[in-house]
């Protein structure tokens, strides 16, 4: 990988690891709250602000284990925060491996995490509850997935090798990679546009497109 590629790789990876650290903190906090609430029903964590702004209100429901998708006798019927601890640890490790396949795998994991976030958000809506910890993890998942996508694009072979369009694309990736809130669809559209432009330039230079 070129120096430019290494630069982009390091930026995206640093952002992913940082977000994973936040995710681990949220997951560990949620886990400790659930355990303490199980042991003492009168326990009131800091995230229980009011009747409708409460984390334990949903933590202690059937959806607090196995996302409410697995029967109680299933090995997957474990506390949701444990899944979070596994997910963030796995993503942080895999994102540091300089391999396109691993990048694609982490993107898939990120997409799954966002699907679950939408599902759990719907559960919050049904319970008419605002869970600060839950919402924080949903935002973290979205940010991680956005960065994972940019990291995967940065690892596409030849993406950072020469060419005006490649340099332009590199700049776009670096700029949008530092703006976590940037639109992923817009980035994909820009990427495809610039890649197609590179293909057209190559076609003309080859002599097939010239008069």
TrEMBL record:
The keyword Transmembrane helix applies. It is found in: Endoplasmic reticulum membrane. Keywords: Disulfide bond, Endoplasmic reticulum, Membrane, Oxidoreductase, Quinone, Redox-active center, Transmembrane, Transmembrane helix. Gene3D superfamilies: VKOR domain. Residues 9-154 form the Vitamin K epoxide reductase domain. One of its GO terms (biological process) is vitamin K metabolic process. It is a multi-pass membrane protein. SMART domains: VKc (SM00756). One of its GO terms (cellular component) is endoplasmic reticulum membrane. It comes from the Eukaryota. Its EC number is 1.17.4.4. The keyword Oxidoreductase applies. InterPro entries: VKOR, VKOR_sf, VKORC1/VKORC1L1. It is an enzyme of class 1 (oxidoreductase). Belongs to the VKOR family. PANTHER family: VITAMIN K EPOXIDE REDUCTASE COMPLEX SUBUNIT 1 (PTHR14519:SF8), VITAMIN K EPOXIDE REDUCTASE COMPLEX, SUBUNIT 1 (PTHR14519). This is vitamin-K-epoxide reductase (warfarin-sensitive). It comes from Atta colombica.
